[in-house]
Automatic annotation (TrEMBL):
Keywords: DNA-binding, Repressor, Transcription, Transcription regulation. CDD domains: HTH_LacI, PBP1_LacI_sugar_binding-like. PROSITE patterns: HTH_LACI_2. It comes from Dictyobacter formicarum. This is LacI family transcriptional regulator.
Length: 343
């Protein structure tokens, strides 16, 4: 076969040589899914024959950088991570992960940026990273990065989030529709994503004509042990009466339930509880937990897919994607029973 010197062969020529359609050629050259290995090889052989130099566009490695506290004890982020791993395996992408401190200093940042400089062809996923300076500096080095479960005002980078606005309203409305007005909110006002849930809780109360009471906000770290201790201490104080608790995640709901049960409150007959996330153990809590489901697997999968797309087309417009959440009804919420309010 003769080579066309000095110009890139057109996809049409490759299609003719390989005996396939132009769209198949384009899909092979862009590493799209759903093409058999034999067909792929046939097209690439024809392309090479015509002097086509494939540019290195397959993503071979992704680095996952996540903040401490979002890894070991937290099934929410573990589930996202598992999904990232599974999707990487599917695409033959190597995955490395690094845990970074909640408060990074200049030296730590420099180390992380150095890693990006050395692996400039790789993809980067920043999970639950609130350090805006680090993210802005990383964006100066690579276009192949995705921000997962962290929100930064007008940071022009691909961002994937669970919805933190509609979900809390679904939760609060579900309680107010069942007559609850005194709704305690267990939350940790440290990360902007959780602060959005808190703002949404306030908005939903206002919409239901319920005055917001700051004394009904229980600030706690969101693991079960912390929430249990915090709720126990709260119940030992002169607290305002409440008939329901909306927890910023399911892990804190576990601790809250335990503390209430030890104080002889029955759930849901005396106090209703609603969680957030729908972690794997939520149906097995006693009673099974009514909660807001976030599709963690989809978040992980979308992050990897976006990096694959971005690797093929570096100039894609950044996206900001929020996944809808849905209310999962189980047994931890009952209509208000005035007689049994916690007071």
């Amino acid at each position: 076969m003769h080579h066309h010197q000095g110009r890139r062969p057109r996809q049409g020529e490759i299609a003719v040589a390989a005996g396939v359609s132009i769209s198949t050629v384009s899909r092979v050259l862009n590493n799209s899914e759903g093409i058999s290995q034999t067909l792929r090889e046939r097209v690439l052989a024809a392309a090479a024959d015509l002097g086509y130099e494939a540019r290195e566009s397959t993503l071979t490695q992704i680095h996952l950088l996540m903040t401490t506290g979002t890894s070991s004890n937290d099934p929410f982020h573990t589930d996202i991570m598992n999904s990232i791993e599974a999707t990487c395996r599917e695409h033959d992408i190597r995955l490395t992960h690094t845990v970074i401190g909640f408060d990074t200093d200049k030296a730590q940042r420099e180390t992380l940026l150095e890693r990006i400089r050395q692996n400039i062809t790789d993809g980067f996923i920043f999970m639950a990273v609130d350090d805006r300076i680090l993210l802005e500096q990383a964006m100066g080095l690579t276009s192949q990065m995705v921000l997962l479960n962290a929100v930064h005002w007008n940071l022009q980078v691909d961002t994937l989030l669970p919805d933190n606005v509609i979900g809390p309203r679904l939760a609060v409305n579900y309680l107010t529709e069942r007559g609850h007005r005194a709704i305690l909110h267990a939350t940790e006002l440290k990360r902007s994503t959780i602060k959005s849930r808190f703002a949404s809780y306030q908005a939903a109360l206002q919409e239901a004509g319920i005055p917001y009471d700051p004394n009904l906000v229980l600030e706690t770290a969101l693991g079960p042990a912390w929430a249990y201790q915090r709720m126990k201490d709260f119940l030992a104080t002169k607290y305002p009466p409440f008939s329901a608790v909306f927890c910023a995640n399911d892990m804190s709901a576990m601790g809250v339930i335990r503390a209430l049960q030890e104080a002889n409150y029955r759930i849901p007959q005396d106090i209703s509880i609603i969680g957030y996330d729908d972690i794997e153990t939520a149906p097995f809590i006693v009673p099974p937990l009514t909660t807001i489901r976030i599709d963690r697997a989809a978040l992980g999968r979308l992050a990897v897919q976006r990096l694959i797309e971005r690797n093929a087309h570096h100039d894609l417009t950044p996206i900001h994607v929020e996944l809808f959440s849905q209310l999962i009804e189980r047994q931890s919420v009952a209509p208000l029973n005035e007689a049994n309010m916690a007071d």
